[in-house]
Amino acid sequence: MNIVWTVGDLVRKLRGEMTQEELADRAGLNKATVNRYEMRSARAEQSTGEKIAKVFGTTTHDLGLYVEALNLANQFAQLGVSGKVRVKQFLDERLRGEKLEPPRVPGPVRGSPSPAKPSNGSSRGTARKPRGASR
Protein backbone atom coordinates (compact mmCIF):
# COMPACT_ATOMS: atom_id res chain seq x y z
CA MET A 1 0.00 0.00 0.00
CA ASN A 2 1.42 3.40 -0.99
CA ILE A 3 0.74 5.93 1.75
CA VAL A 4 1.51 9.56 0.96
CA TRP A 5 1.87 11.83 3.97
CA THR A 6 0.86 15.48 3.94
CA VAL A 7 1.50 18.23 6.47
CA GLY A 8 -2.16 17.92 7.52
CA ASP A 9 -1.65 14.22 8.25
CA LEU A 10 1.41 15.06 10.32
CA VAL A 11 -0.43 17.75 12.29
CA ARG A 12 -3.22 15.28 13.03
CA LYS A 13 -0.59 12.78 14.29
CA LEU A 14 1.28 15.38 16.35
CA ARG A 15 -1.97 16.58 17.87
CA GLY A 16 -2.42 13.13 19.46
CA GLU A 17 -4.95 13.45 22.29
CA MET A 18 -5.31 17.20 21.76
CA THR A 19 -8.60 18.06 20.07
CA GLN A 20 -8.83 20.28 17.00
CA GLU A 21 -10.52 22.86 19.20
CA GLU A 22 -7.63 22.83 21.71
CA LEU A 23 -5.10 23.18 18.88
CA ALA A 24 -7.13 26.01 17.38
CA ASP A 25 -7.24 27.82 20.76
CA ARG A 26 -3.49 27.45 21.28
CA ALA A 27 -2.76 28.62 17.70
CA GLY A 28 -5.22 31.51 17.77
CA LEU A 29 -7.34 29.98 14.99
CA ASN A 30 -10.85 28.63 14.78
CA LYS A 31 -11.63 24.90 14.77
CA ALA A 32 -12.90 24.96 11.17
CA THR A 33 -9.53 26.28 9.97
CA VAL A 34 -7.64 23.50 11.74
CA ASN A 35 -10.08 20.94 10.34
CA ARG A 36 -9.63 22.22 6.77
CA TYR A 37 -5.85 22.23 7.24
CA GLU A 38 -5.80 18.63 8.41
CA MET A 39 -8.29 17.42 5.81
CA ARG A 40 -6.58 19.26 2.91
CA SER A 41 -9.93 20.69 1.86
CA ALA A 42 -8.40 24.15 1.57
CA ARG A 43 -4.95 25.51 0.82
CA ALA A 44 -3.68 27.04 4.04
CA GLU A 45 -2.26 30.49 4.34
CA GLN A 46 1.43 30.57 5.31
CA SER A 47 0.49 32.29 8.56
CA THR A 48 -1.92 29.45 9.45
CA GLY A 49 0.82 26.86 9.03
CA GLU A 50 3.23 28.99 11.06
CA LYS A 51 0.74 29.32 13.93
CA ILE A 52 0.11 25.58 14.00
CA ALA A 53 3.84 24.74 13.78
CA LYS A 54 4.58 27.13 16.66
CA VAL A 55 2.21 25.17 18.93
CA PHE A 56 4.42 22.11 18.35
CA GLY A 57 7.64 24.09 18.82
CA THR A 58 8.76 23.86 15.20
CA THR A 59 8.53 25.65 11.85
CA THR A 60 6.54 25.00 8.69
CA HIS A 61 9.84 24.25 6.96
CA ASP A 62 10.67 21.52 9.45
CA LEU A 63 7.16 20.07 9.21
CA GLY A 64 7.60 19.88 5.43
CA LEU A 65 10.99 18.18 5.77
CA TYR A 66 9.55 15.67 8.21
CA VAL A 67 6.72 14.86 5.76
CA GLU A 68 9.29 14.31 2.99
CA ALA A 69 11.23 11.96 5.26
CA LEU A 70 8.07 9.98 6.08
CA ASN A 71 7.26 9.62 2.39
CA LEU A 72 10.81 8.47 1.60
CA ALA A 73 10.61 5.93 4.43
CA ASN A 74 7.37 4.57 2.96
CA GLN A 75 8.96 4.26 -0.48
CA PHE A 76 11.98 2.51 1.04
CA ALA A 77 9.71 0.06 2.88
CA GLN A 78 8.21 -0.98 -0.46
CA LEU A 79 11.58 -1.91 -1.99
CA GLY A 80 12.60 -5.52 -2.26
CA VAL A 81 15.62 -6.81 -0.34
CA SER A 82 18.09 -6.15 -3.19
CA GLY A 83 16.79 -2.58 -3.58
CA LYS A 84 17.18 -1.94 0.13
CA VAL A 85 20.74 -3.31 0.05
CA ARG A 86 21.64 -1.02 -2.90
CA VAL A 87 20.17 2.02 -1.16
CA LYS A 88 22.00 1.16 2.09
CA GLN A 89 25.31 0.75 0.24
CA PHE A 90 24.77 4.06 -1.54
CA LEU A 91 23.99 5.88 1.72
CA ASP A 92 26.92 4.27 3.56
CA GLU A 93 29.33 5.35 0.83
CA ARG A 94 27.88 8.87 0.76
CA LEU A 95 28.30 9.16 4.54
CA ARG A 96 31.96 8.19 4.14
CA GLY A 97 32.31 11.09 1.69
CA GLU A 98 32.85 8.99 -1.42
CA LYS A 99 31.44 10.42 -4.62
CA LEU A 100 29.37 7.88 -6.49
CA GLU A 101 26.50 7.51 -8.83
CA PRO A 102 23.04 6.94 -7.33
CA PRO A 103 21.76 3.36 -7.40
CA ARG A 104 20.09 2.40 -10.64
CA VAL A 105 16.33 2.23 -10.48
CA PRO A 106 14.65 -0.34 -12.71
CA GLY A 107 12.81 1.23 -15.64
CA PRO A 108 12.85 4.80 -16.87
CA VAL A 109 12.51 7.63 -14.40
CA ARG A 110 9.90 10.16 -15.46
CA GLY A 111 11.11 13.66 -16.03
CA SER A 112 14.81 12.80 -16.24
CA PRO A 113 16.54 13.59 -19.52
CA SER A 114 18.48 10.92 -21.37
CA PRO A 115 22.22 11.43 -21.32
CA ALA A 116 23.45 13.02 -24.55
CA LYS A 117 25.64 10.73 -26.67
CA PRO A 118 28.06 12.12 -29.25
CA SER A 119 27.01 11.06 -32.75
CA ASN A 120 30.57 10.86 -34.17
CA GLY A 121 31.98 8.65 -31.43
CA SER A 122 34.01 11.53 -30.02
CA SER A 123 33.62 12.42 -26.39
CA ARG A 124 35.23 15.85 -26.76
CA GLY A 125 32.02 17.64 -27.58
CA THR A 126 33.71 20.10 -29.99
CA ALA A 127 31.42 21.93 -32.34
CA ARG A 128 31.98 21.65 -36.11
CA LYS A 129 32.24 24.80 -38.18
CA PRO A 130 30.00 25.01 -41.24
CA ARG A 131 31.65 24.53 -44.62
CA GLY A 132 33.08 27.66 -46.04
CA ALA A 133 33.43 29.33 -42.68
CA SER A 134 36.76 31.03 -42.03
CA ARG A 135 38.94 29.54 -39.35
- Give the terminus-to-terminus CA distance: 63 Å
Could you tell me the number of beta strands? 0
CATH topology of the domain at 7-91: 434 Repressor (Amino-terminal Domain)
Number of helices: 6
Rg, alpha carbons: 24 Å
Name the helicity range. Answer: 40-55%
Query: What is the global morphology?
Result: elongated
CATH architecture annotation name of the domain at 7-91: Orthogonal Bundle
The first-level CATH class of the domain at 7-91 is given as: Mainly Alpha
Q: Which spans of ≥5 residues are poorly predicted at pLDDT below 50? A: none
Largest sheet descriptor: none
Overall pLDDT level? 76
The CATH superfamily of the domain at 7-91 is lambda repressor-like DNA-binding domains
Structural class: mainly alpha
N-to-C order of helices and strands: HHHHHH
Q: How much β-strand is present in the residues?
A: under 5%
Notes on the protein architecture:
α2 (20-27) crosses α3 (31-39) and α2 packs across α4. The protein has helices at residues 7-15, 20-27, 31-39, 46-55, 60-77, 81-95. By secondary structure, the protein is mainly α. The protein contains six helices and no strands. It is elongated and about 65 Å long. The N and C termini lie far apart (63 Å).
Which keywords apply here?
mainly alpha; 434 Repressor (Amino-terminal Domain); 6 helices; 51% helix
Helix and strand layout, with pairings?
Elements (H helix, E strand, L loop, with lengths): L6 H9 L4 H8 L3 H9 L6 H10 L4 H18 L3 H15 L40
